[in-house]
Every structure is written in C-alpha cells, then in structure tokens.
Amino acid sequence: MQKRNKLVISIAAAVVLGAAAFLFLRSNEPTGDFVEYAMQEKTDIPTAIAIGPDSSVWFTMDFAPAIGRIRDGKVERIATGKQRNNVEPLGLGVDSSGTVWYTDALDQAITSISPDGEFRKYPLDTPIARLARLTVGKDGTVWFAEGTAYSITSLKDGKVSRHVINNIRGGPYGVAVDAQGNVWATLQGGNQLLKITPAGEMNEYEVPTRSSSPTDITVDAAGAVWFVEFRGSKVGRFFDGKFTEFDVPSESWAALSGVTVAPDGAVWFGAMREHAIGRVRDGKVKLFPLPRPDARPYSVAADAAGNIWYADISGYVGMLKASAAKKP
Question: Hey, what domains does the chain have and what are their CATH numbers?
Fold first, then answer.
C-alpha cells in the first residue's frame, strides 16, 4: 500500500480505556528470535511505540480511530470514540504513573489517558497543528516538537509553554530529556541538535555530516545524546561537546527512524529500507533483519527485560527477544 511507504506517517490518537476494546491474539507464532503481532484491520498503520511501567506496550495507529496496546501476549485495539481516523500520531509517551500521552493533530491538542481510563485533552492555541515526537520527563513534564509553532513545547500542570526556535533552518522533530532536566531536540531542516536547559537557555550544535536530516533522539544513562541521521544513514552520538558518527551498512540509503537505549546500554534504531532493526554496541553497528521482506520499522522501544519492540508501518508490531538482542 502506497500510504505505508510515506516517510512521514500521520496519526492522531485519543484513547478511552473504558470504551469497548477488541482483543485478538497475535497472528504470527514466534519465528526464531522474533515475535510479531499483525494488525486486525488492514488500514491500521503502527507508528509510535512506548513501554508503560507495567510493561504494557502502547502504540499509535495511523488511519485508524483507535490506539493499540499489547499486554500479556494479546493486542487491544481501543476505540478512540471518534468518527474520524487518526492523523499524525507521531508523538507518544507513558509517564511513571502509567498515564499515556500522545499527539492529536486533528484536534490541535495533546491528549492523555490515565490508568483508570479517564482521558483529557489539552488544546493548543493554533488553528493547525503539525506535531512530531513526544516524551515525558522524570518530573512529569510532557515535551513535544511543534512544527507549526516552530517550537519545542512543554505541557506541565495543564499549562502549555513554548520554546520558540530562533533559526529559520530549524524544523523540530525528535525530543528527549536527560537526567539533569536538559531537553534535547533535533532540528531536522537545520541539521542541528538543540539543547534547552532547565533555566530556558537554548544552544544549537551542528551535526558534522551535512544535510543528514537528524530525526529521532534519546539520551543514555551516562548522559550521551544519541540520534539517527535519516538522510545520512548514520547513528550519531554527542557527548562532552564532541560528535561521533557510526555508519550503518546499506547499499544506498537505510532510511533510519526511531532510536532507543536498552538496559545494557546498547543503542537500537529502525532501518526502514533495510527492513531491519539495528544496534550500536561497543562502537560496532549490527543489523538484525526482520522476518518479512517488506518490513518498515518506524519506531523502536526497549522494555525493562531488554526486549526490543518496533512499530512497523507495514502493519505489524514486533519484538526481538532479549536473548537475541544481547548476542554478539
């Protein structure tokens, strides 16, 4: 399906746990080192993925009036209660209480759903919203990339605060928060990383590879900032003021998307055109081909046990088992 091959997927999710959820068992039995779960509806496109504190796996779905969750080996397709389908649900995060947060572009809002099923919308004061990735800091602040406002925006105690990027080259996409409360973001069009300190000071750092289009970003336990270069086919690391880049093996262009850090410190990412997920460990890059030749892993997440999860826009959510992820 042509829609599945778009590099920027659209999804907006509003979730109501109290609404009727349709349960279905995974359609694929474990295949070697992988377990995959097919979507119930052919038009459902898994996009963003996040792990809850109870180990539930949440994912947004483009072109669907629902959000997904995997729990105890079963997939729940939870109706949003909307007449229309989701559009641009690129941002998804779960806080320490189990509250799920996600971007809702059609409603120009950020929406949350509590563990007991209560949901709430936090409207943005823009007539149109183009929203990218979202994360939740340890203090519960929700951060997201807001392209239409040219901002890395925070939501805390119901209040929206914008950190406007004073650089016409910008184009915010990825966002992450480190242990000190610094917010890190990628400026996709500007080919830069952005740092916002707790005091609100903003600094930009040029990515060494020109026109590399940095997208997803994360921070490891040591404070190193990791990001993927969508057009550069590289994984970047920024630490102590210095960049290091790791080439991803590819015949032409790997189309990297998604990045996460596993409990053992390994960095994982999706390589859509290689139909694989990849790992950087001890300075070495390794690709793990997915079971299907048409796989397009758009987002990745690591659970507490070290299993690596991915949202595949070809219609699956999958997992690489921790035992395989830890192999040389």
Answer: 8-123 (2.130.10.10)
